[in-house]
Specification:
heterodimer; A: alpha/beta; TIM Barrel; four-stranded mixed beta sheet; 42% helix; B: TIM Barrel; four-stranded parallel beta sheet
Chain lengths: 358, 364
């Protein structure tokens, strides 16, 4: 791996083949060391976090992806669809925390809701709480809104931005950007091309987006690398991705989980490290503590990550899939996790503007 | 690169200041890289495990260490003592465990049991399982045996050896600082006594393990001093086979409650593992004791210098009393799979780190 090490240290771009070799290399300490070296050079010692609240407007979903434990049909137990008042009540509860900076809003693809239904709720939230940032809606939801409204993706995005106060697009729904994989795990939602198209159009409008990868199910390692390369290529073009978040698949209560076991921490850490190394044009890599668990997320900050997500208020999507992490973390707790490893915590908004540096 | 980092990278012997600098430098992945090199120098691409059975004879203890969640006082409803007939049942079970290579016995310091009780159990185990290694009694227990029998430590060890004892486990070391021991375990063997038992055992040809329990009230300097004390003794005797770190589990302990101690974080755990590997350049094997660490973290530890996942373990009581959330046993194929995923080769070992072949194709 000497040749790859030289490339990494000199800042040379890694190829598809290099990426695959990294995935086939078991030297976790070396991988971590390389990723950490790149992180230090690129991001310094600050670790970003946000004081946020997740709002999931509905879990009723037409897509019913096989990796998801959150989506439901109307008649299923626990199915819900929030009214405007209910959504506002969630935010009203979260804003009791004076440090609350903003909201992360992602939801199911409700079979009878119109785009206006979604927009009205976001608008109401934005009008009631104009100081809170709103990051929301994945590429999958935006594609869905365009389909059901007859508007173009661009028009949907403009409405969400101008009327709903949307400041950034969430990174979910990318799963694995391979139609072979998507045909099996999520055949009914946005294709790889559609997901990328939404990101590209958003970037063109000056709306920043996040990116993600759901791994550890039926994808091959080559498909993971291909996924990273696709993101990297679009980023070369637009520079609109702010952040990359690798999501390990959580199998509990999912259709896919009947045959797929949960990833090991070993796999989680190497995937974080390789993401940092391959995505040389991404500034930020997130260790999402909800899925990784807090202990792994803390260690992942040594494997190339420089962001640990947020306080969340109350996480539901992944806890339906058996996440063993808490459903929220206090800000003090997040600060402690970051300080314990000798790094500098900084609270940010959804566009990585630093609100408080500690 | 700083001098202390260069030394670590070159695998040179570290002094106390180097170790403290590496600790403060806090470069986890650099430490991991160096620790991996050290591990590969000692054991190549091998990761060891064993098929073993833990037996805890009693939890009734005269020592009542504030650090412990296992012990109870005499008369407590939760108290238990295994007698010869109970041991007989366990041994029958052991005889049915294919490829069992080690019985690990550690217990409380029972206020009324005499040394003969323990001696007879070793005999009983060795008679029933002549091919199985008996690893039993920490130095804390050995010191207690000397006290209750009036024999010297050496005489106690000779009698145990004659009864069938093969090696000593590494527990009870905690932190070799009398300041710390006064608070966390005031009534049991001192640091000097623990070390004396190990030195005597090594001189008698009894191999032992070593350990450190950290993450309670000790300072970083006390941790490092502990490791250097072990390294010095090892230079003299060469009798330590393996080292393991015990992160303190505060749940259900007096110490945890009184000092409001939180579990050590994963970063700190892995950092101490890698750093210990670098300091203890004369101890061949490092255990990732999955019962304490949980399996996923233990697997991770194999990337930070550990080369031994310990055992498949029948029934573990001591750490589970302190709130460990791990299962009390694991199958061989699961352990092997975890090892293979790291790119290393699983090796089933006996107590002395000799590779053992399976008696037959069946796995337990």
């Amino acid at each position: 791996m000497k040749d790859i090490e030289e490339k990494i240290l000199s800042g040379e771009r890694l190829t598809r083949e290099d990426g695959l070799r990294l995935f086939n290399c078991n030297n976790l300490a070396w991988l971590g060391n390389m990723a950490d070296t790149v992180r230090k050079k690129k991001c310094g010692d600050v670790v970003y976090y946000n004081v946020n609240c997740h709002v999931n407007l509905t879990n009723i979903c037409t897509s019913r992806c096989k990796f998801c434990a959150f989506g439901r049909d109307f008649e299923n137990q626990g199915a819900y669809a929030m009214t405007k008042a209910e959504a506002l009540a969630v935010v009203a509860d979260a804003i009791k925390n004076p440090n609350l900076a903003g909201l992360h809003i992602v939801s199911g693809l409700h079979p009878t809701w119109t785009f206006e239904n979604y927009l009205e709720i976001v608008k109401a939230i934005h009008e009631t709480y104009p100081t809170l940032y709103i990051k929301g809606f994945t590429g999958v939801e935006i594609t869905h809104f365009a389909k059901i409204s007859g508007l173009s993706v661009k028009e949907v995005l403009i409405k969400l931005r101008d009327e709903g106060g949307l400041q950034a697009i969430a990174g979910g729904g990318a799963e694995i950007l391979s139609d072979r994989v998507r045909q099996i795990i999520c055949p009914k939602k946005a294709t790889a091309a559609e997901w990328l198209e939404v990101a590209k159009i958003a970037h063109g409008l000056g709306i920043k987006t996040n990116a993600s990868m759901l791994y550890g199910h039926i994808e091959t390692l080559a498909e993971r690398v291909e996924h990273l390369i696709k993101l990297r290529e679009l980023q070369d073009e637009t520079h609109g991705f702010q952040n990359f978040i690798p999501f390990p698949f959580l199998p509990k209560n999912t259709e896919l989980g009947k045959t797929v076991k949960q990833t090991s921490m070993w796999d989680d850490l190497r995937t974080i490290a390789i993401s940092r190394l391959m995505l040389d044009n991404f500034d930020n890599i997130k260790a999402y503590w909800v899925m990784l668990t807090v202990p792994v997320a803390q260690v992942a900050l040594g494997f190339g990550a420089n962001d640990i997500d947020g306080t969340i208020h109350k996480e539901t999507i992944l806890h339906d899939a058996g996440a063993t992490s808490p459903t929220a973390l206090s800000e003090d707790n997040i600060i402690k996790i970051i300080r314990e490893i000798g790094r500098i915590p900084a609270a940010v908004d959804c566009n990585f503007n630093i609100l408080r540096r500690l | 690169m700083e001098d202390f980092k260069q030394k670590a990278l070159a695998g040179e012997r570290l002094n106390f200041d180097d170790a403290l600098n590496l600790y403060r430098d806090n470069d986890l992945l650099f430490l991991a890289k160096c620790a991996r090199q050290m591990k590969e120098r000692k054991s190549g691409n091998k990761i060891f495990y064993t098929i073993n059975r833990h037996i805890n004879l009693t939890n009734i203890c005269s020592s009542n260490c504030p650090l412990c969640a296992f012990q109870v006082k005499d008369g407590d409803k939760r108290g238990f003592v295994l007698e010869s007939a109970d041991i007989e049942k366990i041994l029958q079970d052991c005889q049915n465990t294919k490829n069992l290579s080690e019985v690990h016995i550690v217990s409380a310091l029972h206020p009324n049991k005499n040394f003969d009780y323990y001696l007879n159990i070793v005999k009983q185990v060795k008679t029933a399982l002549p091919k199985v290694d008996v690893k039993a009694f920490t130095p804390v227990e050995v010191v207690n045996f000397a006290k209750i029998s009036g024999l010297s430590v050496k005489e106690v060890l000779i009698e145990l050896q004659a009864a069938g004892l093969d090696s000593l486990p590494g527990g009870g070391a905690e932190i070799f600082s009398d300041r710390v021991r006064q608070i966390i375990c005031p009534k049991k063997a001192t640091a000097a006594e623990w070390l004396e038992v190990m030195q005597t055992a090594h001189e008698l040809g009894i191999r032992t393990n070593a350990s450190m329990m950290f993450g309670h009230i000790e300072t970083i300097e006390e941790r490092l001093q502990h490791l250097f004390t072990l390294r010095n003794l090892q230079d003299k005797t060469g009798g330590f086979q393996a080292f393991m770190l015990f992160p303190f589990h505060p749940a259900n302990t007096i110490l945890g409650a009184e000092k409001n101690i939180q579990c050590v974080g994963s970063w700190e755990n892995l950092k101490m593992l890698a750093l210990s590997r670098l300091i203890l350049d004369n101890i061949d094997h490092f255990k990732a004791f999955w019962i304490m660490l949980t399996l996923p973290i233990a697997q991770l530890a194999l990337g930070f210098g550990a080369d031994d996942l310990d055992g498949t373990i029948g029934e573990e009581k001591i750490i589970h009393a302190a709130g460990a959330k791990t299962k009390t046993g694991i199958t061989r194929s699961d352990l092997e799979k975890i090892i293979r995923e790291t790119g290393y080769k699983p090796i089933r070992r006996d107590t002395f780190y000799q590779e053992v072949q399976n008696d037959n194709s069946a796995s337990s």
